[in-house]
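Hey, resending since the last one bounced:
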Amino acid sequence: MHHVKVEIATTLTPAIVDAVARLVPQLSQSSPPPTTVELGDVVASPATDLFIAIDDGGVVVGMATLVTFRIPTGRRAWIEDVVVDEGGRGRGVGEALTQAMLDRARELGCRTVDLTSRPSRAAANRLYQRAGFVARDSTVYRYTPGD
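The structure tokens again:
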């Protein structure tokens, strides 16, 4: 792979559905890939941009989601579900996705862009630090309705 093109999915295509079904299990063993309807909701939502990375051969080799929202303290963004296909890792795909999302957040006037990354994802954490992300002195809490 010599070049990767990153774009925002504005239309849900079978290739995107297939790619997400292939990529999500590489990201999470506990979350199944979205159905076509659920993925369509992501693409159609004004609050989410589904970024896809496409190699020279037209294959989707990575994806990420930028969530943007307005709160009283300003417009904010959150990066979620970043995954690069195992065969494409270490080739700048994650960097291209991250830069595209940061550019989009800037374009939308977001004051901050946040994300979380497990400490075990050493390469991803190095990437985020190179991109200018700074670890915050914060505690992340999670509540799971229904548990």
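The longest strand covers residues 60-71.

Sorry for the duplicate.
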